[in-house]
Amino acid sequence: MMSLGGKTKALRAIHDEVCNLKASPLYEYRKQNNYYPVLGEGSQDADIMFIGEAPGKNEAETGRPFCGASGKVLDQLIESIGLKRDDVYITNIVKDRPPGNRDPLPDEIELYMPFLKRQIEIIRPKIIATLGRYSMKHIMECYGLSLEIRPISHAHGMVFHTDEPYESLIIIPLYHPAVALYNGATREILAEDFKKLKIIFKKKKST
Ligand code: URA
Predict the structure, then answer these.
(1) Cα-flanking dihedrals φ and ψ of residue 91, to 5°?
(2) Which residues pair with 172 in a beta bridge?
(3) What residues pair up with 173 in beta bridges, in sequence order?
(4) 67 alpha carbon – ligand 1 mean position (Å)
(5) Measured distance CA(92)–CA(24) in Å, rounded
(6) pTM (2 decimals)?
(7) Which of 38, 49, 53 to mutate to test the pocket of ligand 1 (most atoms within 8 A of CB)?
(8) Are 94 and 108 in contact (CB under 8 A)?
(9) pLDDT value at residue 71
(10) What pLDDT is stored for residue 101 in this prediction?
(11) Which residues contact 78 (CB under 8 A, 6 or more apart)?
(12) Which of 66, 59, 83 is nearest to 132 (CA)?
């Protein structure tokens, strides 16, 4: 197990590498707009890690993940299960904002994914909650669950077990909180899925 100081150092190294990631097709766009890369925030010892897709404008302007409208939804959902934002870790697959909020391109995902994998292996959450179908797809593919991938309308709230990249990791796909902004039914589903997340979290905590 890595010490807290070791984790801080290892996460700082990722931060510095991403800051200087000139190989990224999003690097110039970041610089031109005085944007920040968005590495992630929260507890380095978090049991739950939330993974979105890529930062939006608010996030790139502040360097903080999920700090806009969908972030408010996420905060409320986290609080609804008795946790605070500081208790969990929140990050994205892609660490720089794609222009005009377009979806990240496959080569961008490929470029940034190793940084996310390192974050996961440093923090070692017991549960990864993916936010949205792209995050679900890439995380499940990455950790040996390709054959279990199904549409998010089926997969949301399901519990997947894997022993990659370490033993007894649980992956729970969730809808992206942005969808809940314009779809009340999805918001209710998310609220229900968070209740499931709370149950799994409590069970995992006691083992
Ligand atoms: N959407 C995401 O996927 N990530 C963020 O950080 C903000 C919005």
Answers:
(1) -150, -175
(2) 129
(3) 130
(4) 8
(5) 16
(6) 0.97
(7) 53
(8) yes
(9) 98
(10) 87
(11) 84, 85, 87, 88, 194
(12) 66
